[in-house]
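HUMAN: Can I see a protein plus its fold?

ASSISTANT:
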Amino acid sequence: MKKAASVKKAASAKKAASAKKAAPARKAPAAKKVTVAPKKATARVKGAAPAKAVVHPPGDESRTALVRRARRINRELAEVYPYAHPELDFDNPFQLVVATVLSAQTTDLRVNQTTPALFAKYPTPEDLAAANPEEVEEILRPTGFFRAKTKSVIGLSKALVEEFGGEVPGRLEDLVKLPGVGRKTAFVVLGNAFGRPGITVDTHFQRLVRRWQWTAETDPDKIEAAVGALFPKSDWTDLSHHVIWHGRRICHARKPACGACPIAPLCPAYGEGETDPEKAKKLLKYEKGGFPGQRLRPPQAYLDAGGKPAPPLGAG
């Protein structure tokens, strides 16, 4: 009996060994190829070969690390865009609130080409409140959605006259009551006409802060709160300018110029766009030519061939 059990056990072991030998060895999974950002932005050093440096995965970031990375990005952008400012022309809060309302669904350049005629004919809220809508529509036609915009600017002008004595209020809760004025427009006005900090969450800002993984929120109000918590309140207005300028010039929606980006080592989305430095440079948008009527603010900065700010327009 014992002998039969031993024979059976030996046969089973032999069978198992044969099966193991016949089974094909499993291949180890191929390592995932990771696109690595250059250690220093290639846009800043002409002809420099990108040095490899691993970007820390934001998913592994602590709250402290996220705050540090976000603030460092803002500091880097401040060096690249030292002249960042609202790209709408205005001489007073009334002109700014009207121009910002008109900027919806069009470019700031188009608005700046349109507002000189509008403000020449209707320089005050009282003038625009009493305007013939058809005449205003004709002036605003180039900006698109001109009928809705005409209704908004005439409506907000009437509200300014009737409720605020013809003056633009300096409080958020009052501004958002004006026709056509939401939180985004209100913060543009508060930050740039009254010097009161605010975060402007436009389409560029939303795209970039999500791309940089500062937040996963999609609602503008929640984005505003999440990003605002990463920075001192005093930084909010300039931060908005830096991010928006970068979104317009380098970090485009469809094809960002990753190889010419000054914050590439800090960006978890590096590699979504063109990483070759020479090809990336061709994607940069300088928006040369300035803006009509620009008088009170410093001219915009451009990147030179080495990626550093070029002299302002008109500078020797």
